[in-house]
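TL;DR need structure tokens for one chain.
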Amino acid sequence: MKLKDQVAIVTGAGRNIGEEIAKLFAAEGAKVAIVDLDQPRGERVAGAIKAAGGDAELFLADVSKGPDVAALVKAVVARFGRIDILVNNVAISDNKHIFDITEEEWDRVIAVTLKSQFLMGKHVAQQMAAQGTGGRIVNIGSTSGFMGRSRAVAYSAAKGGVANLTRAMAAQLAPHKIRVNAIVPNKIGSPVGKDEFDPTRPVVNLVGRPGVPLDMARAVLFLVSDESSICTGGVYMADGGLSAI
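>> reply
TL;DR here they are.
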């Protein structure tokens, strides 16, 4: 097992990419803190992991708020004793043109999709540094952060920020033996914030098929395992080659 007895936090773990990451980590021996605001979704994922013989617990928190994040980190340490891995996965999208989006909608998307990664990274990294044994952080980006879109202006801005936040975190946390990387998916599973998966949604890439959440989970597993010990500060395209064309 690649993650035996390690403790991992996965935000937005109640569905889609976060769910598959949590399940794969547990299958590889990790104890998983399922973080989500949707209690039924989170309980379903935690229950599935436990039913399969793994160790997981749901933590309800709004990770766009500093006090919630500070309390979350303390609660995870109280439950599991330490934190070795953080996956910043949670995000919401606006799907709005710049003429139509309100200031409140902009602020909320930036807070959940970008600010949450800063807050979680800050508080979890402080815990990792105090432990003295290092750690690994993976931020989930999006191809929307690398191109202009006819809609989703706030989401595009937030995901663009994730890329350089990742590099800055890697540079600043390296002295504490904390590796920080990001992966960049494109149209994986159901759209952000939705449960429905539309198999007819057009996806253009080089592999000839849509990506699925398990593809992303496997990429994240590599980045938090010892197999990627040389990797930090990287923003890795996991988009089926879309960015190459």
